[in-house]
Design brief:
Blueprint (H helix, E strand, L loop, with lengths): L5 E7 L2 H16 L4 E7 L5 H9 L6 E2 L9 H19 L3 E5 L3 H12 L4 E4 L14 H10 L3 E4 L2 H9 L6 E4 L3 H14 L17 E5 L9 H12 L6 E5 L7 H8 L5 E4 L4 H10 L2 E4 L3 H5 L7 E3 L7 H6 L2 E3 L4 H13 L1 H7 L11 H14 L11
Parallel strand pairs: 1-2, 1-4, 2-3, 4-5, 5-6, 6-7, 8-9, 8-11, 9-10, 11-12, 12-13
Helix pairs in contact: 1-2, 1-7, 1-15, 3-4, 4-5, 7-10, 8-9, 8-13
This protein binds uridine-diphosphate-N-acetylglucosamine.
The site of uridine-diphosphate-N-acetylglucosamine (UD1) has 22 residues, from helix 1 and helix 2.
C-alpha cells in the first residue's frame, strides 16, 4: 500500500470558489500527515480573493496573479493555462482539486489533464438546460466534468446529472456543498458577535432590508434595468432599505452608481467581507440576486431568494420553495419584490428554512473520499439531504 502523504493541490481564483474551497483546504490541513496540501491561487480576482484568504487564514503556496482590468475570458484562460503548467511541474501534486464553474476551474483542469495528473471536481454535476446560461459557467462546468476523475457532487441530483452523462467509469460521490460548511462556521462567528458589520450600521430595524447583488456576464446588458427596478422598489410605501455591495467589474459598477447614487433608501457599498455578507443575509427580509452561492446559503436561514436569472442549476431550492426565478426584466423584478413585501402569505411560503445543499461536513467527506480512492482508506457515507 502507498503510504506516502497524498499531495493534494487546491486551485481557486475568484471570491466564491475561494469561499467554497476554504473548508476543503482546512480539512486537508487537518488530515496531515496523511495529506500534504498545496494551495494555488490563480487570482482571477485580486482584492475580492485576498479578503477571503485572510478571513479563512489561508496563505497560498503558489499565486499566479493573473488578473488584469477588463480581462476577457481568453485572457483568463490563457494566463491560467500557462501559469498552471509551471506550477504543476514544480509542485508535482498527486491530484488537483478545482471548484465549480469559473474559468479558473476549467483552465486549471485542462492544464492538469495535460500533465496527466488526475482532477477532482468540487461542486460537480450542476446543470441548466442550456449551455448559454449562465454564460460562460454552464460550459465551464461541463468542460471541467469531462476532464475530471473524481466528482464531488453536492446533491443527489448533481450525481444523477453526472451519471446520465455516462461518467459511470469515474468516481462520483455525494458530499453536500462546501459552501454550507463555510456559511455555518461563519454564521457562528457572526452570532457570537465576533465580526464587525459596518455595512449594517444605522439601518432602521423597523423597516425591511433587501440584500441585493448582481454581477453575472449574461446580466451585464440588463444591469441598468436591474438598477432602475431597485430605484422603483426603494420608493415603495413599505420603505424598504436596499443594501447592495457593488461588484468592482467595469461592466457592472459604473452603471449601478450612475442610476442609484444618492437615491434615498439605497445603500451602495464596496464589496463586503464574507462574514459581513453572512450577517447581511441574516439581517435581511429577503435577497434579490443573480449569485449562485446565495441561492444555497440563504435557504439555510429561511430567507427567501428572488433569483434574477431565467435558469438555475439549483433546482433543490426551487423545490424547497425558498427560491423563485424572476429573471432580470424591470417589470418582473418590481412585481415579485412588491409581492414579497405586501403579501405575508407569499412571504411565509418562501421563508422556510431548509438544507438541501449540505450539513456542514462536505469538506470532510471530500478528503475522506480522496484517501479512500487514492490510499485505500475507508469509504465515507454519502451526504443525504434531510
Ligand atoms: C467571475 C466568474 C463567475 C463568478 C464571479 C464572482 C468566470 C467566467 N466568471 O465573474 O462565475 O460568479 O467571478 O465574482 O470565471 N475585478 C476587480 N477586482 C477583483 C475582482 C474583479 O477589479 O477583485 C474586476 C476586474 O476588472 C475584472 C472584472 O472585475 O476584469 C471581472 O472579473 P472576472 O473574473 O473576469 O468576472 P466576474 O464577473 O467577476
Amino acid at each position: 500500500m502507498n503510504r506516502a502523504p497524498l499531495r493534494v493541490m487546491t486551485v481557486m481564483g475568484t471570491r466564491p470558489d475561494t469561499i467554497k474551497m476554504a473548508p476543503v483546504v482546512q480539512a486537508l490541513r487537518a488530515a496531515r500527515p496523511d495529506v500534504e496540501p498545496i494551495v494555488c491561487v490563480t487570482a482571477q480576482h485580486r482584492e475580492l480573493l485576498d479578503e477571503v484568504l485572510a478571513l479563512f487564514g489561508i496563505v497560498p503556496d503558489i499565486d499566479l496573479d493573473i488578473m488584469t482590468k477588463s480581462q476577457s475570458l481568453t485572457d483568463i484562460t490563457t494566463r491560467v493555462l500557462i501559469g498552471m503548467e509551471r506550477a504543476l511541474i514544480e509542485a508535482r501534486p498527486d491530484v488537483v482539486l478545482v471548484h465549480g464553474d469559473t474559468t479558473t476551474s476549467t483552465a486549471a483542469a485542462l492544464a492538469t489533464f495535460y500533465q496527466k495528473i488526475p482532477v477532482g471536481h468540487v461542486e460537480a454535476g450542476l446543470r441548466t438546460s442550456s449551455i448559454a446560461e449562465p454564460f460562460p459557467e454552464e460550459a465551464n462546468r461541463r468542460l471541467t466534468g469531462v476532464l475530471t476523475s473524481f466528482h464531488f457532487a453536492p446533491t443527489a441530483r448533481a450525481k444523477a446529472n453526472l451519471l446520465a452523462e455516462r461518467t459511470a467509469h469515474a468516481y462520483v460521490v455525494v458530499t453536500g456543498n462546501t459552501v454550507i460548511d463555510a456559511f455555518l462556521a461563519t454564521e457562528r462567528r457572526v452570532r457570537a458577535g465576533a465580526v464587525a458589520v459596518p455595512a449594517l450600521d444605522g439601518l432602521d430595524p423597523g423597516r425591511p432590508m433587501i440584500f441585493v447583488t448582481a454581477h453575472r456576464r449574461e446580466n451585464h446588458e440588463a444591469m441598468r434595468d436591474i438598477a432602475r427596478a431597485v430605484q422603483t422598489i426603494a420608493a415603495f410605501p413599505e420603505r424598504p432599505q436596499v443594501l447592495w455591495p457593488v461588484h468592482p467589474s467595469p461592466q457592472v459598477a459604473p452603471v449601478i452608481h450612475e442610476v442609484l447614487d444618492g437615491i434615498a433608501g439605497v445603500r451602495l457599498v464596496a464589496p463586503m467581507g464574507y462574514a459581513e455578507t453572512v450577517a447581511a443575509v441574516a439581517a435581511s427580509a429577503f435577497v434579490l440576486t443573480d449569485s449562485g452561492g446565495l441561492q444555497e446559503e440563504a435557504p439555510t436561514l429561511g430567507k427567501p431568494v428572488l433569483v434574477m436569472r431565467r435558469e438555475t442549476e439549483r433546482p433543490e431550492g426551487l423545490e424547497a420553495g425558498t427560491l423563485r426565478l424572476v429573471g432580470a426584466r424591470y417589470e418582473d423584478i418590481v412585481a415579485e419584490t412588491r409581492r414579497l413585501l405586501t403579501d405575508p402569505a407569499a412571504y411565509a411560503r418562501m421563508a422556510q428554512a431548509s438544507n438541501p445543499y449540505g450539513d456542514g461536513r462536505a469538506a470532510e467527506r471530500i478528503v475522506a473520499s480522496l484517501l479512500h480512492v487514492l490510499r485505500n482508506g475507508p469509504a465515507p457515507p454519502e451526504f443525504e439531504a434531510p
